[in-house]
Amino acid sequence: MTPPAPRPPVVAVGELPPSVAFLLSRLGYEVSRELGEALAELDLEHREFGLLRLLADKEGHSQRALGAMLQIPPNRMVTLVDGLEKKGFVERRTHPDDRRAYALALTEDGNAALGRAFQAAFGVEARTCEPLDAAEREQLLTLLRKIAEAGIERGGTPPGMHPGMVER
Questions:
Q1: In angstroms, rounded to a whole number, what is the distance separating the alpha carbons of residues 139 and 70?
Q2: Three-state secondary-structure class, residue 94
Q3: Tens digit of pLDDT for each residue in 98-142?
Q4: For residue 58, what are the contacts with CB-CB under 8 A and spacing of at least 6?
Q5: Which end of the chain is more exposed for a tag (fewer CB within 10 A), N or C?
Q6: Is the pTM higher than 0.90?
Q7: How far apart are CA 43 and CA 39, in angstroms?
Q8: Cα–Cα distance between 140 and 34 in angstroms, integer?
Q9: Nearby residues of 52 by Cβ (< 8 Å), 6 or more positions away
Q10: Backbone phi, then psi, for 19, in 5-degree steps?
Q11: What is the pLDDT of residues 19-48, one digit of tens each?
Q12: In CATH terms, is domain 31-130 a member of 1.10.10.10?
């Protein structure tokens, strides 16, 4: 006979439950919402910020290769790049090794937008971590990385990428 599943602890209304999963989910939702609002003021979405970040590091890669790195299907990648191109943040160039492919590059306006987006993200992080001193913030970051790395090993989103990049 299988023993009964353990009962979750009773939590009074207004109290935070002693659950890592619940707290991470709640904080993730709140931080994502706040960052989304900050990015919206810059006429950017999370996915666009993510692609600009990747382009800053992988400029000149093909649109298809970047989409594969982000695990974004080609049709979604085209739509995402089209939007950034219309905003003047990205340009498609003929790929030096394959004339059938496009190499993506940040424009000057794209670099400036990325800088503003990073400032917005740093502001959200500063407000989120305000109750922590420097040592506590570093400890939290270490523990969150450990959890994230275990998730990657289980087939989660690649390092440096956010699962929101592939949704929609």
A1: 28
A2: strand
A3: 888 888 999 999 999 999 999 999 999 999 999 999 999 999 999
A4: 65, 66, 69
A5: N
A6: no
A7: 6
A8: 20
A9: 44, 84, 89, 90, 106, 110, 113, 114, 117
A10: -130, 120
A11: 888 889 889 999 999 999 999 999 999 989
A12: yes
